[in-house]
Design a protein that fits this description.
Radius of gyration: 23 Å
Shape: extended
Largest sheet: 2 strands, antiparallel
Number of strands: 2
Structural class: alpha+beta
Length: 116
């Protein structure tokens, strides 16, 4: 009976360890995603924005090239341009928050980033 209890406790501890480990990884991913999302406003150009969103959707450079009728080399160059735009530090920027109301209730919040 005692041995079964020990095994049960060991299993519960292992499950707790795995859940903690999984939560830690999820928090790491959320932190990385937040960093990328904070840099989205720095991407300039219609083509760059479109390619960036397709990359975020998980499309390969070759697939994006086929969809947009561009070579994969061009997509690679644009991706590098996007990365350099995202890594640049702006002199300063701020964002304007506007609220959309319906019947006195706020139904939507819009953020507009402005770089100076």
């Amino acid at each position: 009976m005692m041995e079964e209890a020990r095994q049960l406790v060991a299993k519960v501890e292992e499950v707790e360890r795995r859940v903690y480990s999984l939560n830690y990884r999820i928090k790491e991913y959320e932190h990385k995603i937040a960093k990328v999302q904070n840099r989205i406003p720095f991407v300039e150009g219609d083509r760059e924005v479109e390619i960036f969103h397709r990359l975020l959707d998980g499309n390969s450079m070759r697939a994006i090239g086929k969809q947009m009728r561009l070579s994969s080399t061009t997509i690679f160059r644009v991706r590098n341009k996007i990365l350099s735009q995202m890594m640049k530090e702006p002199r300063s920027y701020f964002f304007l928050i506007t609220y959309v109301q319906q019947s006195g209730q706020i139904v939507e919040e819009r953020k507009t980033y402005i770089s100076i």
